[in-house]
Amino acid sequence: MNHPRNTQCEVVVAVERRAEVRVWFCSPSPLLSFPSLFKNMAEAGAGFLKQLKACIVWSWTYLWTLWFFVMLFLVYILRVPLKINDNLTTVSMFLNTLTPKFYVALTGTSSLISGLILIFEWWYFRKYGTSFIEQVSVSHLRPLLGGVDNNSPNNSSTSNGDSDSNRQSVSECKVWRNPLNLFRGAEYNRYTWVTGREPLTYYDMNLSAQDHQTFFTCDTDHLRPADAIMQKAWRERNPQARISAAHEALELNECATAYILLAEEEATTIVEAEKLFKQALKAGEGCYRRSQQLQHHGSQYEAQHRRDTNVLVYIKRRLAMCARKLGRTREAVKMMRDLMKEFPLLSMFNIHENLLEALLELQAYADVQAVLAKYDDISLPKSATICYTAALLKARAVSDKFSPEAASRRGLSTAEMNAVEAIHRAVEFNPHVPKLSE
């Protein structure tokens, strides 16, 4: 896969295996060698944080008894100036004079607050797909309370008992959609031709098949012969059978999803894929306009319009990716921005990550920062692309003046600490990237 080499920094994510996202940071300048910079800053920051954490743990382990007695002594000494006895008497009298109306109001207030929290949790789950309280507990409270450290070396004991304990200590792995996935026919097959190995596993293909059925099918497909054929094609395991089904659907009418399948799997070059996607766009826009007029006539028409919307957005996003891969990066950026303005609520395709990739290639770091400010949430990392891009920008801001020796003597500055925290956040989100970027 050839990419322009005249960029100072480029992020290339080239894996459809969505449990692992590969990112390469390329720079001709030794001052901006980000993998080594990440390593140095991470080591310096990790050493400082480790010492600080050890001091805090030691103090809480051995000094809590002393602190307890000191507090008792202070309370005893200050009992007269603080009028503790009088205050306790006043509180007791206040509690004895409370009426049942107070407890009714207290119960109602607590119920109202609980309801607001429940509504916020429901809204947050609908928008982000996870619980806010659970996310905060796992991401922030668990490390402070002595959560499991998953960075222990793997070359310890390999006995059955140790293996079971290690499996239990590893946190649950989530599968994330990769919006930067390659084209199967034009790019993945090239890897197969060169190495003789299949780049995608059955697990990868199964995940993609589930997404294709979610995006490109609906309950009314059986009413249209071409869509019925494509509904079966998306479930087919054999690539040649899927391609044959797409050609069969095109013999019946101009089917947008059939063009999508051929562009993804049959086209051997990006140019061929772009031509097929343009044909798919022409067919998809016609279906979208027709279903848009009928979407309020019933639930079936609404589901069909939702499917046609997904198809149209997918085609336009892939056309923008083709333009970027063919060197028309500015055109790709414009297409992505227009698409995000046209469909601002459709976030399942994560078009902003494709936009980040193109903006980084153009070295438009201010625009990258603007996109991150809109989509980067520190309490809920969206993806490895967002986490590592945020770490890249923060590390880039301090890379010119950073020195591991100076940092070890004077400590890290605020900007350097922010960069280290961003790096740690990215590595915690996806620890595979540093290994793949070396």
Key terms:
mainly alpha, 20 helices, 438 residues, two-stranded antiparallel sheet, 68% helix
Tell me what you see in this structure.
The protein is built from 20 helices and two strands. The protein is an all-alpha fold and 438 residues long. It has a domain at 184-350: Alpha Horseshoe (Serine Threonine Protein Phosphatase 5, Tetratricopeptide repeat). It has a two-stranded antiparallel ribbon. α1 (34-62) packs across α19 and α17 (384-398) runs antiparallel to α19. The radius of gyration is 28 Å and the shape is extended. The model is unreliable at 1-34 and 146-171 (pLDDT under 50).
CATH level 1 class label of the domain at 184-350: Mainly Alpha
Q: What is the CATH topology descriptor of the domain at 184-350? A: Serine Threonine Protein Phosphatase 5, Tetratricopeptide repeat
Describe the global form: extended
- The share of residues in extended strands comes to under 5%
CATH architecture of the domain at 184-350: Alpha Horseshoe
Estimate percent helicity: 55-70%
The computed structural class is mainly alpha
Rounded to the nearest angstrom, the distance between the terminal CA atoms is 18 Å
